[in-house]
Amino acid sequence: EVQLVETGGGLIQPGGSLRLSCAASGFTVSSNYMSWVRQAPGKGLEWVSVIYSGGSTYYADSVKGRFTISRDNSKNTLYLQMNSLRAEDTAVYYCARGKRYSSSWYLDYWGQGTLVTVSS
Amino acid sequence: QSVLTQPPSVSGAPGQRVTISCTGSSSNIGAGYDVHWYQQLPGTAPKLLIYGNSNRPSGVPDRFSGSKSGTSASLAITGLQAEDEADYYCQSYDSSLSASYVFGTGTKVTVL
Asked: Is the pLDDT assigned to residue B1 strictly greater than 80?
């Protein structure tokens, strides 16, 4: 059974750093497209970052240069290192597995999410 | 702000049919990129509802159907049920953005 469990969220001051983890089971993270998606309180979904099976990474403009996506193959875990955090980064962060369909990707499994609150 | 526009809300009585539109442009849906749909029940993570414009994953009732035409896509729910009350999001790819994978603005479905 595919499962994704995010941890690492919490309250952090503006300018601080936080690392989110997403432990996967039932499949191999390194063989799949993995993504982070966030949702600010009361708002819609926003794609944040992706890492492809080959290791290529991409970021939304809103987080580029501040966030880094990575994975640990030995732990079958996905990470999101978040630096220089801002109030507008406050959101529930979901990790999700992607599947290719034709020329695009969809997210077939999602974790339960972890809340990041950036506030002084 | 998202490049995929959805109506903020739609509503219907139990048993009725409702549709949710997802309007894009020539750099996303109109360019031929596929559309996928997610359902988010209150307080839970999103769940895949439709992939590749019109395909249902295993376990999704056939009351849910999707279609795509031109620069838009639609999600239809027939035989609306109370448990369908949720937020719905479309998703596609946009070739003009660095945040290439884009979500729609989201639609709240209310069962009257």
From this structure: no
